[in-house]
């Protein structure tokens, strides 16, 4: 028997080997605490036999692991095959011993439905708010947002075991009567003081008006907020700042490219595409300021990872971001002028202070601390069910 993990992320096969731009080996390893046999129920992606693509995705190398892929039902073609997808989810849940559903996600919601049908023990991971993401998506999303929110509230409230990635934000919005813990989805190694020393040296040697800014997020969804940073860059450029904005993340970059062209800052905006997880840290070490401009967030993993490298950071006031950053580093979401003001005020002294604060604050999310909390919760879940 196995533990089934259900979520809307992606996995695919290249030359008979599994790759993913959503998950990595460390994430899969977690669920072996519940069962040594792990199955992921996710959307399948055609990665083709592209060598460059292989370098930008995570190679999954796990024993006793497999994935069940379904067509992308968030397209018209996929939606027409929804009946087949439901049948597959039904059979996967029926054949599994334990269910872990990461929500909000359609596959996660379906897995919970069938877990109840077959009286399967299930655990929910709450990683975000569908209301915020859908209401910032498009017109249809705005109509669906309150429906999804009400539905998710009912599911979480009645769930026997709930893991939240935030400390407070998601718990307040999606309360549960079941057992619960807060445990971020991040994987940080124990702090190395040399990392902070190198960052402080970098800050002292950086020209205040020559800044490299970075954001790690999908570039094809408007609620990640990169468009507001691009508009802020224009104002900073006109004020004499030499700014480069580096964007790491998958998806079509057409929308953001058009904004950069409209604002006449195309040369300042660099799209780096997707990076495998181990190379994300290399990239974060090179930038001067990390910005999380999201309109909605749970507890952003990339922001925590940037903090662990002592990177000064700014973020919007949405979701769980205020749980991570000092108030002086927050700006109201969509507020371009306030973002510009914060960047201008981010002098060397301020960067040194925030670099140290972020570095030490991130240690709350080290692997050994979170792993033990998560393991204890998984063991309790397994024992009680």
Automatic annotation (TrEMBL):
- Tell me the ranges covered by the Glycosyl transferase family domain, including all copies: 199-353
Q: What is this protein called?
A: Glycosyl transferase family 1 domain-containing protein
* Cited Gene3D superfamilies: Glycogen Phosphorylase B (3.40.50.2000)
The species is Eubacterium limosum
A UniProt-annotated Pfam family = Glycos_transf_1
GO MF annotation list: glycosyltransferase activity
Q: Which InterPro entries match?
A: Glyco_trans_1 (IPR001296), Glycosyltransferase_grp1 (IPR050194)
